[in-house]
Predict the 3D structure of the following.
Amino acid sequence: MNIALIHDKDHIKNFWEKKIVADEVQSETEAMRKSKSSLRKLRCEWVVRLENRNKHLKSLSEEYSRKAKVSPPEEEQT
């Protein structure tokens, strides 16, 4: 085989091997960044807040409707 051809093949092989290694490193750092992110924790906290808010609003609504049924309607005095 021609030496120049072998050199070109080695150069291309090394180029792609470096690209693959760099891509693997970038993927690992991205995975670490995501695992350290507090976004998941914030989402969980907001879900809990919204659930508590919905429970509170539902209980207020039920309490209001219960009071409306129990108390007699007010008559207007003229």
Remarks:
- The chain has two helices and no strands.
- The mean pLDDT is 87.
- Residues 3-62 form one domain.
- Helices lie at 3-36, 39-70.
